[in-house]
Amino acid sequence: MQQVQVAHVSEKKKQEVEKIKDLVKKFNVLGILNLENLPADQYIKIKHKLQGKVLIKTTKKRLLKIAFSQLEKEKTGISKLNEMIKGSPALLLTNEDEFKLQKTLNKNKSSAFAKPGQLANKDIEISAGPTQFTPGPMIGEFGQLGIKTHVLEGKIHIKEDKLLIKEGEEINTKIASILSKLGIEPMEIGLNLIFTFKNGEILTKDVLNIDEKEFLDSLMLAHQEAFNLAVNISYPTKETINILLKKAQIEAMALESKVPDLDSVSPKESEAKPFEERKEIEAKPEPIPESKETQIETKEQEEIIEKNEHKEPLKEELKHHDKIEVEKVDASNDEMRKAADLLRQLTDKKIRGEI
Question: What is the span of the domain harbouring residue 344?
Answer without folding.
Answer: 213-352
